[in-house]
Amino acid sequence: MSQLLILLPALFPLAVFVTSFALEPRKFRTGIYLFVALGWLAMFGLGWAMVAATRVWDELVGDYLLLGLVLVAMLAMIGLAVFLIVAGITLVLKEGFQFNRLASVILGAAILGLPVVGWVLISLRAVDWLLWLVLLGVPASYLGFGFVSFVIYGSFYPSWMARFGRPVEVVVVLGSGLIGDRVPPLLASRLQKGRLVFDRSVAAGRDVRLVTSGGRGSDETVAEAVAMRDFLVAAGVPAQSVLTEERSRNTKQNLAYTAELLARQGLAGPVAVVTSDFHALRAAFLMRKAGLPGYAVGAKTARYFWPTAVMREYVAVLRDHLWLNAAMLAIACLPLAVALVIALTR
């Protein structure tokens, strides 16, 4: 009984995540709960292991625990930075140079530079400059905390739904651009994943409709939805099962116009929205706002493309919640602003 009481504090954050996930997994806060739960469990497990080894809790164990957490955090930060740099360089080598493709390299270098600058300032005993670095780190930590939460949950959510998502009445495949009138590999991957979800729901006895969603871009000869429909029909999907939404130009419109189409057709769902793996979590957020019940799943994309794509998705999520994030960043920047005012008025 006493061991159970000891475990309760460790399991509480996990219970919060599980409850939030069961009630509504398509909210960003659920991803934050997951990150907090994993971090708390890691800290609790490390402390438990140290106490089990020494069979006593004292100040020295606490110091070692804090040091271990700092080292783990630094190693994770360095590992993430190296991964972002290597992925960004690989993306440029494979797809050619564009400045936006260097985004992950720039972010990785910035992450890698922070502990280096901090170490130099500590070595030089430049306390004042170190304080400024800490103050700059507060808003950066807010963005970094959100980014890591998004990455972790953005990997967990589509994987879970792909394995445990229930059969649906409607499968919606989101467009991603054509080459003329031809379906490129990225979009073909989405359509193939959509076909798998469609077949699984049909096998479960559902009368399923498959919606292709995407308008016509300036460099495209047909609407994406039409080319996607033709691709699926050629692959054996019954033509009468496919509906097209041909007006949308972005994900928000994809889902809003699809919701209107389903309402006209008298289709209430549940719905499975199929997109690329890096885009699935944000698509889930937006389908909730569009009033579409169900879940989103992701088709696999090239690993080298994933880091830069995830960064773009995170920025889009920040933009989707602009006022909230602006307020939180303002609060995070408040200590820095106060310090600047004090320094300028001396």
Descriptive account of the structure:
The longest helix is centred in the middle third of the chain and has 38 residues, at 127-164. Among the domains are: 58-161, no CATH class; 165-301, HUPs (Rossmann fold). The protein is 69% helix and 8% strand. The protein starts with a helix and ends with a helix. The chain has 11 helices and 5 strands; from the N terminus they run αααααβαβαβαβαβαα. Strands 3-2-1-4-5 form a 5-stranded parallel beta sheet, with helices on both faces. By secondary structure, the chain is an alpha/beta fold. β4, α9 and β5 (294-299) form a beta-alpha-beta unit. The mean pLDDT is 85.
Which short descriptors sum up this protein?
single chain, alpha/beta, Rossmann fold, five-stranded parallel beta sheet, 11 helices, 8% strand
